[in-house]
């Protein structure tokens, strides 16, 4: 591990160093990169097209540190201004260089105007390696999410980056229970269930049946809604998960959206569910069409 | 000394305790408790304020056993880099077990200060229910709770003095939590809900302010409009610390005029913040109190540009603490330098967080500040570029830095003029600032800067490094030289196993070490964990599930290790593997 050195610097830095040369460097990058073989890409030189210039020759006496940004092997190991770049035989080095080259190309594509030294961020390169600055690097510049959300102008929504990394949901403490409210259409009193007690949708479904069967039957007597079959006693509540029953199970997730229960893995469901509702299937026209949409844009009056 | 010591032992314990009462810093108390057994005993029964820098270093049960009279507890959870999305949300740091233990231990808790912890509504409800004397809740960068939890606190804590919410992520349940403060609550001294996104009942807020005659600090959120602020100020001219809500209004209205009048009457305000939403045309309302301000935070204020900022700041001659966005520009910083001679702390944040635009401040602004503000001792500076020359000059002008944090937009940018690494500049800083406790470096940096840090930064306690160094030598210099190092956080540096394992005992003298995207391997981490049972070595692997058979030679993406007296934690989620 000794003597390992790796320094990842984005291509805009290269261009930083030779501001005067940036125009032709831009061209040179394009020329050397488009449609060339891998080796050629790796041999990207900072010099005018066709010339066999080395970095040293371009930049004169202050070359030692400039070499530090080059891609080529630097054998001046004893230099006082330590050139951080040393020749790499590790396999990882070459893929890195490839990505650097690609980035130059992408950059040129995106920025038609002359490259400004101050431009330090690369527009979304798909192969953005984490270590390489200044492409969108996770956590750089080091600014708290709170500030980022403000800067985004979003005072009430989460910034896309923070959403990508983690969802800001009220965290259950040491997750021993997860009690959520569950209400059912036609039943004025809700219940609470501990989702941690179930380990599958089927178990949840049968629990819902047990919880509400009696209550529903009691309501049925005082129901004023249309014609009801005069079924005596309690009716089993079934088909909650597949749209086949009289009722369907939906839930409200941590983003406030109403969702059909059953689409995602159980653990993911448990971590994002906020409350449950048992709706009359007739209120979900989409189900009748046989399709099961991911999100229902129903009103939030759960 | 021996006779002195025995003399003290003849004092009754009450006298010792009384002497110890004068020791407020936990470090002093920790030192005192190491002297001898009797001092340890006296100290532990008399300690009321306990500080726990890492909530996993000790268990609540052991803490309560040692300090049964604890009344104020400070806890910190996630590592610092969690602020920058490097640590998954549910990594840990739950306060619930602490509160449960404190309830069981029948501790008379009055103050709770949490930083980077996961707080649930249930936790807050427990607090509110079981601690009738609860006085002060301070939550910084926490999450996991909603306004329902706040409602519980407001409803039940009859003697609440302080509710201070700083930069937390709080889900708004639209439950009118603020209206839950009963009419009998008149004890509030400090109320800060800037970070909340939802609305509060303005009438309730005004009534609350009116009846809390001891209210000194009030920071409202963006949902409180300017005219409401005016009514509040009219009721509370005794305020010392004000955080405005929305500061947008038509200045040609009576409301605005009234605000100016009310503001003028607030002759005690020395600290001003807020401005999450602000129109420059409204800023003049604040001019009358500028001369009394010692602390000013405009860093949440977008769209206020250099000229307007400067117009405000040039009146702030007593300013000791200033937080701004880089929209102030180098020129604006020049005005700060000439107006704010008492300045001690400056923070210049990025205004353009996602964009690729320039920041408006460079090394020039920093040099100007250092030249104009001789009392400067703490700086956080986001900038476009830096030079060694500038840093050397800053080091010469301001040898009193305690905190020096520099962040270049491009983390590996070299000296803007000479293209050299910034080693010499930072070297000058550590050499000159003998009391430096916290340092963050950025820019193009080689092993040399770490040589300087190890050699000169003898008081350094916290060091943050990113994209720097060439080899293990860098990290070794720091570990060997910085005797007082407590927290070391490293990302994207070529430091590997040799550095990690060279002095394993060192980590027991530190609070924690974070290394991400470096060169350390699983094998080395396992070795370290094996040899040092009083360290928790955690590997965070978000992408794959932790496999039992991981190649030792594989590099570790994120490692967080910390000293602990209680072994591996039991609440680690699936993606955290304690070796």
Write up this protein.
- The complex is a heterodimer of chains A (302) and B (579).
- With 302 residues, chain A is an alpha+beta fold.
- Chain A has helices at 11-17, 22-33, 38-42, 55-59, 63-67, 93-110, 145-151, 160-165, 201-221, 266-272, 285-288; strands at residues 179-184, 187-194, 247-253, 258-260, 273-280, 295-296.
- In chain A, helix 2 packs across helix 6.
- With 579 residues, chain B is α/β, with parallel strands linked by helices.
- Helices cover 33% and strands 17% of the residues of chain B.
- In chain B, the strands form two sheets. Chain B has a 21-stranded mixed β-sheet, with helices on one face. Chain B has a two-stranded parallel sheet with strand order 5-7.
- In chain B, helix 9 runs parallel beside helix 10 and helix 18 packs parallel to helix 19 (472-481).
- Chain B starts with a helix and ends with a strand.
- The mean pLDDT of chain B is 92.
- Chain B: It is found in: Nucleus.
- Chain B: Its main location: nucleus.
Please work out how many helical segments of chain A DSSP would assign: 11
Oligomerization status of the protein chains: heterodimer
Figure out the total of helices of chain B.
21
- What strand order characterises the main sheet of chain A? 2-1-5-3-4-6
Question: What's the topology here?
Answer:
The complex is a heterodimer of chains A (302) and B (579).
Chain A: H1 11-17, H2 22-33, H3 38-42, H4 55-59, H5 63-67, H6 93-110, H7 145-151, H8 160-165, E1 179-184, E2 187-194, H9 201-221, E3 247-253, E4 258-260, H10 266-272, E5 273-280, H11 285-288, E6 295-296
Parallel strand pairs in A: 1-5
Antiparallel strand pairs in A: 1-2, 3-4, 3-5, 4-6
Helix pairs in contact in A: 2-6
Chain B: H1 2-9, H2 13-21, H3 26-33, H4 37-46, E1 49-52, H5 60-66, E2 72-76, H6 96-104, E3 111-115, H7 121-130, E4 136-140, E5 143-146, H8 147-156, E6 162-166, E7 169-171, E8 190-192, H9 202-211, E9 217-219, H10 226-235, E10 241-243, H11 254-265, E11 271-273, H12 287-290, E12 295-297, H13 306-313, E13 321-325, H14 329-339, E14 345-349, H15 363-372, E15 378-383, H16 388-397, E16 403-408, H17 423-432, E17 438-440, H18 447-456, E18 462-466, H19 472-481, E19 487-491, H20 497-502, E20 512-516, H21 522-531, E21 535-540, E22 558-563, E23 576-578
Helix pairs in contact in B: 2-4, 6-7, 7-8, 9-10, 10-11, 13-14, 14-15, 15-16, 16-17, 17-18, 18-19
Domain PB1 (chain A): 177-281
GO biological process, one term (chain A): auxin-activated signaling pathway
Subcellular location (chain A): Nucleus
């Amino acid at each position: 591990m000794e003597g390992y050195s790796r320094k990842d610097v984005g291509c805009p830095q290269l261009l930083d160093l030779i501001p005067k040369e940036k125009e032709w460097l831009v061209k040179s990058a394009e020329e050397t990169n488009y449609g060339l073989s891998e080796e050629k890409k790796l041999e990207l030189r900072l010099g005018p097209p066709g010339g066999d210039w080395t970095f040293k020759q371009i930049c004169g006496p202050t070359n030692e540190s400039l070499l530090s940004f080059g891609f080529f092997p630097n054998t001046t190991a004893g230099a006082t201004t330590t050139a951080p770049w040393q020749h790499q035989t590790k396999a990882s080095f070459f893929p890195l260089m490839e990505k650097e080259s690609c980035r130059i190309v992408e950059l040129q594509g995106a920025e038609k105007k002359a490259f400004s030294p101050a431009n330090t961020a690369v527009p979304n390169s798909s192969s953005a390696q984490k270590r390489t600055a200044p492409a969108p690097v996770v956590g750089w510049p080091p600014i708290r999410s709170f500030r980022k959300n403000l800067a985004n102008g979003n005072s009430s929504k989460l910034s896309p980056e923070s959403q990508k990394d983690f969802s800001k949901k009220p965290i259950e403490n040491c997750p021993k229970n997860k009690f959520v409210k569950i209400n059912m259409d036609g039943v004025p009193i809700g219940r609470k269930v501990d989702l941690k007690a179930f380990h599958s949708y089927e178990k949840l479904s049968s629990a819902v049946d047990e919880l509400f069967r009696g209550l529903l039957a009691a309501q049925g007597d005082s129901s004023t809604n249309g014609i009801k079959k005069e079924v005596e006693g309690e009716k089993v509540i079934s088909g909650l998960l597949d749209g086949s029953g009289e009722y369907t199970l939906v839930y409200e997730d941590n983003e406030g959206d109403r969702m059909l229960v059953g689409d995602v893995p159980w653990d993911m469901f448990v971590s994002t569910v906020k409350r449950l509702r048992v709706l009359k299937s007739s209120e979900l026209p989409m189900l009748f069409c046989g399709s099961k949409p991911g999100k229902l844009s129903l009103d939030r009056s759960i | 000394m021996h006779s002195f010591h025995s003399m003290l032992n003849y004092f009754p314990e009450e006298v010792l305790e009384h002497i110890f009462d004068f020791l407020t810093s936990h470090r002093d108390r920790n030192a005192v408790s190491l002297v001898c057994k009797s001092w340890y005993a006296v100290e532990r029964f008399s300690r009321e304020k306990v500080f726990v820098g890492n909530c996993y270093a000790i268990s609540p049960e052991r803490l309560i056993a040692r300090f049964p009279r604890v009344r104020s507890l400070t806890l910190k959870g996630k590592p610092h880099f969690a602020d920058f999305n490097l640590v998954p949300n549910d990594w840990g740091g739950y306060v619930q077990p602490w509160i449960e233990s404190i309830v069981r231990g029948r501790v008379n808790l009055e103050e709770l200060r949490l930083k980077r912890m996961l707080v649930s509504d249930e936790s807050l409800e427990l607090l509110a229910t079981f601690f009738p004397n609860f006085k002060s809740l301070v939550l910084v960068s926490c999450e996991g709770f909603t306004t329902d939890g706040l409602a519980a606190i407001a409803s039940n804590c009859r003697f609440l003095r302080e509710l201070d919410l700083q930069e937390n992520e709080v889900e708004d349940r639209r439950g009118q939590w603020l209206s839950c403060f009963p009419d009998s609550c008149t004890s509030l001294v400090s109320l800060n809900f800037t970070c909340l996104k939802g609305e509060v009942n303005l009438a309730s807020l005004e009534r609350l302010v009116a009846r809390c005659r001891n209210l000194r600090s009030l920071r409202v959120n963006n949902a409180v409009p300017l005219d409401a602020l005016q009514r509040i100020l009219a009721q509370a001219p005794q305020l010392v610390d004000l955080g405005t809500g929305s500061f947008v209004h038509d200045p040609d209205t009576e409301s605005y005029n009234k605000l100016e009048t009310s503001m003028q009457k607030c002759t005690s305000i020395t600290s001003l913040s807020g401005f999450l939403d602000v129109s420059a045309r409204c800023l003049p309302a604040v001019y009358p109190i500028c001369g009394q301000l010692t602390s000013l935070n405009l860093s949440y204020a977008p769209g206020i540009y250099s000229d307007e900022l400067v117009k405000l700041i040039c009146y702030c001659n007593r300013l000791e603490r200033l937080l701004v966005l880089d929209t102030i520009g180098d020129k604006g910083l020049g005005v700060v330098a000439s107006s704010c001679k008492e300045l001690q702390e400056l923070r210049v944040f990025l205004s353009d967080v996602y964009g690729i635009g320039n920041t408006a401040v460079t090394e020039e602004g920093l040099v100007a500040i250092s030249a104009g503000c001789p009392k400067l001792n703490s700086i956080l500076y986001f900038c476009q570029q830096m030079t060694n020359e500038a840093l050397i000059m800053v080091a010469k002008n301001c040898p009193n830095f305690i905190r020096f944090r520099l962040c270049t937009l491009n983390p590996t940018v070299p000296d803007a003029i000479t293209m050299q690494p910034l080693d010499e500049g930072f070297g000058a800083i550590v050499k000159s600032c003998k009391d430096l406790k916290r340092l963050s470096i950025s820019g193009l940096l080689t092993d040399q800067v770490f040589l300087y840090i190890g050699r000169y930064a003898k008081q350094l306690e916290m060091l943050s490094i990113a994209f720097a160094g060439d080899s293990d030598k860098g990290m070794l210099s720091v570990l060997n030289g910085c005797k007082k190092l407590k927290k070391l956080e490293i990302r994207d540096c070529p430091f590997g196993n040799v550095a990690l394992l060279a002095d394993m005992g060192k980590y027991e003298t530190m609070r924690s070490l974070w290394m991400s995207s470096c060169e350390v391997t699983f094998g080395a981490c396992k070795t370290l964990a094996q040899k040092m049972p009083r360290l928790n070595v955690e590997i965070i692997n978000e992408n794959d599930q932790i496999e039992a058979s991981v190649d030792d030679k594989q590099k570790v993406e994120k490692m967080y290790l910390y000293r602990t007296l209680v072994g591996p934690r039991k609440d680690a989620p699936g993606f955290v593997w304690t070796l």
